[in-house]
Write a structure and sequence with these properties.
single chain; alpha/beta; 3 domains; five-stranded mixed β-sheet; globular
Length: about 625
């Protein structure tokens, strides 16, 4: 092996003026939302351990440091090829682009790209990504339809960064976070000067001598405590079958299942919300569940060989099966468990331990389904209310409150579960009426789309039409987008708005928005309202309700309108008062769609969710 060079570097030292190439065989960027969520949570929580409002920016120099692992490079003809680490490098670049767009004073531009001989190159110099990265950097729309897997994932993961970045790090604190990220976060850059050496290093670090994964260590501990050989062999076979089935659904899903299950049933504490607090049950299960189980065997009831057998054959089988069911329901609409999918569309991974919390291995399939529906509806209502009131639903923001709810909901019977979750919702001070001016802004377009999709689907289903929710949230060339009823022409509204900024604020209110095919806006979006109105009549029922003809020969819709007492009305013109009326309509729709009374009806309704065998 020839010369190997290893050096610890800060993010600034690693990225400033650097250009990295990707070999053809590993060019795809494949991180999923959960990896982005884990990275952001780790970074922002470490930053928040030290940051206090009122600190001078110079204080960041004394904040704690964070090690982000290593990257392996092959120096080939003076150019650095990434052998291992491009997923983290790409995601860090997306985070830096987010910071660039949020904080004008952040010194990050030269970490995102470099300019040589008049040519701008992003730090990962991959030509097929350039247009997408340029659009994200400049805040422009970019359609990833028909693009490579990497480009599609880059656009989607940037949206995840926007969605998951905690609100607590506001437009002022983000400057401090940027300083901390680029100066106090470190990686080890390992450079070899031949491809063979670089790959040998990669294989050595990832194969030979690699420590056993936590799941393997937990398995070893459990099986070692089963004294009967036949029981041990049977438990081993069952364990392997469970892991295979879960990981066939998605890579590393078995480890995620074993995190969700003990959190749901046994975690009694969580890291206190203060600086330098130590990780507790909930946190440790997420990072070292194998060690946590061993240290808490008494709490779990692991004392004899028979109890370890039961741990695998009863508890692990039951909770793994239910975890897989809810994960499958989160990936596609499942009859009776649709709400799990809605929550997953918002990227809310904390729903999984909460869904498992009230379940008991003694529950019948019907009781399990009803509990899942109740818990999922609680999450659905909570998230919708928070979004409507401009409150964060990011993991770091919601973790503590969700832990408390999980602990309260644990193995509750249905009536008690409903009562517990109703109390928690009733304790929330903010409802939909709390924010009568709810509107679209730079950071909530995706969330607005999800709410509009739900509301549009609600109107149509309650009017006797088929559900088109899957169409409203689907990606692709014919996708639906959030569209404004008013075109962006403040001069057309000077009789009601003295300043363009006042017009813009009103225009972005949810009552002035619709969910329409992208092609619609391209064809009609710039027209005055009166010219667009006839075309609205050919769209979904919420858009069609603007037109007078929607109220003729439409018995299902009229029955829904009257029974629900909703203030639907046609709008021949769309002035300020019309938008106010539409805002009130949408608020009333939201209050009915996300009514906590749903918890009682979910507890009584049967579901059609198919069982899963593991």
């Amino acid at each position: 092996m020839r010369e190997i060079h290893g050096e610890a570097k800060t993010i600034r030292q690693l990225l400033q003026g650097s250009r990295y190439a990707i070999d053809y065989y590993q060019r795809e960027y494949r991180w999923e939302p959960k990896q982005v969520e884990e990275l952001l949570t780790d970074l922002t929580e470490k930053f928040q351990d030290d940051h206090e409002p009122g600190h001078e920016r110079s204080a960041v120099e004394g904040y704690g440091h964070y090690f982000l692992g290593s990257i392996i490079l092959s120096d080939r003809d003076g150019r650095s090829y990434v052998i291992d680490g491009q997923q983290r490098l790409t995601t860090l670049t997306l985070l830096l682009i987010y910071i660039h767009r949020q904080a004008a004073g952040a010194d990050v531009d030269d970490l995102i790209f470099s300019t040589r001989f008049g040519r701008k190159s992003f730090n990962i110099d991959e030509p097929e990504r350039a247009l997408a990265m340029e659009a994200l950097y400049n805040g422009n729309e970019f359609d990833p339809t028909g693009q490579s897997e990497s480009v599609r994932n880059i656009v989607a993961r940037y949206q995840d960064v926007e969605r998951l970045f905690p609100n607590e790090i506001d437009e002022h604190a983000v400057l401090y976070f940027a300083d901390w990220l680029i100066e106090n976060v470190h990686l080890v850059e390992i450079t070899a000067y031949s491809d063979d050496d670089a790959y040998t290093i990669f294989e050595t670090m990832n194969d030979r001598g690699l420590s056993l994964a936590p799941l393997d260590m937990l398995k070893g501990y459990v099986l070692a405590n089963i004294t009967d050989e036949r029981d041990r062999l049977r438990a081993n076979d069952r364990w392997k079958s469970l892991v295979t089935t879960l990981n066939d659904f998605e890579k590393d899903e078995a480890a995620d299942a074993v995190k969700a299950w003990p959190r749901s049933q046994y975690a009694d504490s969580i890291r206190e919300r203060r600086r330098h607090a130590q990780p507790r049950d909930f946190d440790r299960v997420g990072t070292e569940f194998h060690r946590w189980v061993k240290e808490n065997d008494d709490r779990i009831g692991l004392s004899t060989g028979a109890s370890f057998v039961e741990f695998v054959e009863r508890e692990m089988v039951f909770y793994s099966r239910q975890y897989l069911r809810v994960r499958m329901a989160s990936a596609q609409l499942t009859p009776g468990l649709e709400t799990i999918y809605y929550n997953a569309r918002l990227g809310f991974t904390l729903q999984y331990p909460l869904l498992l919390a009230p379940l008991s291995p003694d529950d019948s399939e019907e009781v399990v389904d009803r509990k899942l529906r109740v818990a999922a509806s609680y999450v659905d209502i909570l998230l919708a209310r928070r979004i409507w009131n401009f409150r964060s639903i990011a993991y770091s923001t919601m973790q503590y409150a969700m832990f408390l709810t999980i602990r309260e909901a644990r193995r509750k019977e249905l009536p008690d579960l409903v009562a517990t979750l109703r109390v928690r919702l009733d304790d929330e001070q903010e409802t939909f009426a709390s924010n009568p001016t709810f509107r679209l802004h730079q950071m909530n377009r995706y969330q607005i789309q999800q709410l509009l999709a739900r509301m549009t689907d609600f109107v149509e289903r309650e009017s006797g039409l088929a559900s088109h929710f899957a169409d409203y949230v689907a990606e692709g060339r014919n996708r639906f987008e959030v569209e404004h009823i008013w075109a962006d022409h403040p001069e057309r509204h000077e009789d009601e708005f003295a300043h363009p900024s006042e017009f813009s604020e009103y225009r972005n209110r949810i009552g002035g928005l619709l969910l329409l095919p992208k092609s619609f806006n391209a064809s009609y979006g710039d027209l005055p309202y009166e010219q667009k109105l006839p075309h609205y009549f050919g769209q979904n029922l919420l858009a069609k309700s603007l037109h007078r003809d929607c109220y003729q020969h439409n018995p299902g819709f009229l029955r829904f309108k009257d029974v629900r007492g909703l203030p639907f009305q046609p709008h021949d013109q769309f002035k300020k008062a019309d938008l106010d009326a539409r805002q009130a309509l949408y608020t009333a729709l939201a209050e009915q769609l996300w009514d906590p009374v749903r918890l009682e009806s979910d507890a009584e309704a049967s579901t059609a969710g198919a069982p899963v065998t593991v």
